[in-house]
Amino acid sequence: MIQFIYNSLYSYDDFGIIAKTVSRPLLPTRRHSEVVIPGRHGSYDFGDNTYENIVIPVVVQYINETFPDLRLRARNLAAWLSQATYKPLIFTDEPDKYYLAKIYDSASLEKIVELVPGESTTVNFECQPFAFSIDEDVMVDRLMSAVKVISNEGTYETFPVITITAITLSGGMDRAIEVTGAFKSGNPASVVTLTNPTIKVGDKTLVYVGTLTTGQSLELNAETYQAVKGDSNVLSAVSGDWPVLTVGNNNITLGDTTSELGAKVEIHFRKRWL
Asked: What b/e string do you get for 164-174 counting C-beta neighbours within 10 Å, with b at 16 or more?
């Protein structure tokens, strides 16, 4: 039996609804942007390689319910499905992925609320064009000029959240670095300053014009184009190309103008599938 999970509630466990048929498009429609020039053959393609939303129709049916029971559930059911913003939609036959979905068609809601036991109807979820991984991928490492590799195992590029933290340098002859922030007991710690830290992912380079001292962090969100240092918005101090994790292996390096010790770099991302 397939059920769907929407906005953290289960179709069957919470509402007695099963998903009898689920059709999920394998490919979203690419946005069409062409211009016809008078006096020229054919057309010019100005497409930006973006996709339209997809519609996932779900055939649903109540089971093991009486008519009075359904009427009691109707208002809660309508409130559950009538979301003002996109909410996660998960199908139990593909539990490692979710879509961002909402229902625009009020007729679909009316039909599902008016269902009687044994009848079925179709609910159309309008979704963002990609499926996302339920679990985040996370990489935590000390980065510097040497190349590190991070792999995106989805089928489409995705946007990471990158946090750069100035590390603690321990004392002693070995000058040991711990990316966790700890250092050897008995050795005094010294301040490390990163000036103009530069993160390069593949062929895209992003620079923060400023400094980070021990314990300070810079968070770069490539999905929302946000740059935050502590509680401060530092977007105006960031320049270059925002990082993108392409499908497969991605080379990553970190540099700055005053330190050769690197920094703690934490990268979070969700795989995306067409």
From this structure: bbbbbbbeeee
